[in-house]
Amino acid sequence: MRVLVTGAGGFIGSHLCPALAAAGHESRASAQGCDAVVHLANIAHGSASPADLHRVNVEGTIAQARAALAAGVRRFIYLSSIKAAQPEDAYGRAKSIAEQALLQMEGLEAVILRPPLVYGPRVRANFLALMRAIDRGWPLPLASIENRRSLAYVGNLAHAILRCLEGAAQGKTYAVSDGAPPSTPELCRAIGRALGRPARLFPFSPALLGLVPGMARLVQSQAADDAAIRAELGWRPPFTFAEGLQLTAEWYRAQGG
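RE: above sequence
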């Protein structure tokens, strides 16, 4: 299968393109002559302005889908977000609007994937910052948090995208995750085990912690129910949560931390 991957140079794209090649598919830079499009090229964080999020994540996605149809490409896989399920900010709303536009586009075989936090080698932003904090032995006020937050190892997400390319998934919306969601303290301890460093957690009021800028996500729950993709496409994540963290930790160490 010939596949256009938008955002191929990004974090997820840099894992997806080798996975496509390993499965016998060909990555292309244009929709001309392609069999499918995987659209990754969106603003991937919520700090952008609502106007920019709408311009890129909504208008840009619709334009890409129209270009695909004009080139005769019907299968269109859109990497959305778990935040689109119940939008609480401009990022989630933009993703949700883009989803609906794609699913309503005549002639398009749209498939929507909603991953939670994606991690793996070359990860950046908050996950990398948490790894660094644990690796450096910084005390973290996270021991009292009782929540559930799903994650998806980037290799598992790439595998799910492949399954959606090859399976009867058109018109479907699927959540994707590693499996049972850990709590924030469990995640920290699991990262510590992968790094060979103890996670130094101490108790603190979750209610007060949630008021600290940048910390609210660590307190809240955000669990993905990926039962549909498992039941309908027979998908199973090829990497366990522990394996994904170990591979991420090995990359982190190789980069010098």
